Amino acid sequence: MTKVKLSVSIATFNEELNIGDCLESVKNIADEIVIVDGKSSDRTVEIAKSYGAKVSLEDNNPNFHINKQKSFDLACGEWILYLDADERVSHNLAEEIRRVIYMSSEEIEHYQKYLKNRQLFIRHQQLIEERDGIVGNQNGEYNAFYMPRLNYFLGKYLKFGGVYPDGVIRLFKRGKARLPCKSVHEQMEVEGKTGWLENDLIHIDSPNFKRYLERNSRYIDLMVDQLKKERLSKDIFSFTNYVVLKPFFWFFSTLIRHKGILDGFPGIVFSFFSALRFSRAYFRYLRNS
Predict the structure, then answer these.
(1) Both 140 and 88 in a single domain?
(2) Domain identity same for 157 and 228
(3) In a domain, 1, yes or no
(4) pTM (2 d.p.)
(5) 51-66 pLDDT, tens digit each
(6) Dist. CA 289–CA 287, nearest whole Å
């Protein structure tokens, strides 16, 4: 049996507009493609199978990390590259992935020391770990890699406002990383060291405003679920925090401190609506509880 070096794992649901471009971007580096589909009603599965993907149908759980983890469990590769359907692997990133998975531990260690944006990546990872806790440890081999993600929003790739490098773990050794499947915003659990790749993962997040509002509304629903779990009080203090303080701080932090205004109109819109999610979630929470 041929050894599978790299598996590409994706969880999908009604992604016929995205899945073809996603799989096209990895067809030359994937030894196998594993897709867990939430019983899509469109052509997602048909398109995926046209690329030779192994497709498993599951219920479409609101916490889509559950189906992502299932796709990892079905993969046979020594390494797993996991993607969302609206992400694209650039040619340079594809070449980098192929090089890294064939490097020895010593070569990877050397590679990490000379990344062109090493200091930026280190600072960003520190912010991630301040928010989510330490990811991985400093012992053993490099078993998982962050990628800088370049987000496409309303016709522009955002580089400011705290949006870039938007580090996400997407490449890892099978069995050495997993999703806890407790929260949509959770970080991966990694056994061993985490490193970085230096080429951008392209994220076609919101090519138009309608798409953005749909995605934003889904995330707000998840925020509401979290507020319910926390049993947030419905007093004047919570009102002030979620309707005034959090939106105000977030808007000016992303727009001014993190220079989101340099991204022009898309940067301003992104800062405004990402700030507005706190008050929208709070009012939705009041209506639904």
Answers:
(1) yes
(2) no
(3) no
(4) 0.85
(5) 999 999 999 988 889 9
(6) 6
